[in-house]
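Hi C.,

You asked whether I'd gotten around to modeling the 388-residue construct. I have! Everything is below, sequence then structure, no commentary in between.
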Amino acid sequence: MHFHPYEKHLLTCSEQDTVSLWDWEDSRLISRFNNGNPALSNITSAAFVNAEMDTLLLIASADGEVRVWRNYERDYLLNPGSGPELASSFRALPDLIRSRKPSGLVVDYQQLTKVVLAAGDSRVIRVWNVHRELCESDIPTHTSSCVTSLSSDLNVGHIFVAGFGDGTVGVYDRRQPAKASLVRLWEEHQTWVQTVHMQRYGTRELASVSMDGEVRLWDIRGRRSIAQMNVSAPLKGRLSCAAVHDRGPLLAFTSQARQTKSGLLSYNVLLANMKHLDPTSKQLQLIPRTINIAGPSQHSSSTSSIISGGGVIFDDSMPSAYTPAMGAIGFHPHLPLLAYSAGPDRSIDFRKCEEPPPEEPEVRIPALTPLVDESSSNGGGRSGGWHW
């Protein structure tokens, strides 16, 4: 699930090969097409290329293939013969290593350097020049687990971070020789790292989230995390998805849907502030959601600010073989807008995420003490005033 940075477009992908583009402001379908990847090779990653002008759509699938589409916003059903066109395709990871818990193909596109980082079920991270369709280097991961998430510093492009299925988080520097590019390896997470994200603007925080609910903030210069919190308790359930806003200190999480005694399904959405990583903080905002599979979904929180009341229809709700997450979640790169879908009702809901006001500290006024005039020592004069 990805927001276009400048257009009113929301990209969603199904479990198999269906790609859909939505107008999130009008809650309508713009286009839908098939990516063309083989059966059982799910779409595992996507990105917008050249977002400022003549945008292309990059789709990565679990078979190691990357397909780049142009005119993806044209619906071939409404305009026969003028639908999406395949601009390019190449095998980004030809040497896939199958495992019991695969991640498929994970990509991260750097607009400044025109480079795609490709990783996943492989022991290397490949650096591809998209325009030349040339592999520039193979960077060893130095771990025995698959890459589950990638994020890079887009302002320079040399530093990127990878999360792994065994809970490790690695920082790589492309300026170093390929075999020596790993500059940091943190092993504080104990389970699958669902999300690792380096903010592109604002305070440029680096955050990672694992499937056991552990959230950690990092400084790439340090050897350990600088802040941590477990969101399982405030989320009131097992973690499913996580997202980090690129500009503001906002984190969002969804729990896995569970069945209630009344036969309904429910899950929670939790909004957190990076500056207040405390399970008891008043900055945490919990949004309960109840799903009636036979009818429309409802939000049980009256404080929710929903842009699209019933949401828009999503593509698929079955669990993926390449990620433990159920559904998807994502922030708009520039606006305080969150989209999420974590239930089998196949709908996407939107929420404005205004940052809550800071907690006001308690102000204590010190007692006033008299300021004795110097004349009082000579004649018992009155005090000349007060001071703090």
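If it helps when you're writing up: Residues 237-388 form one domain.

Thanks,
B.
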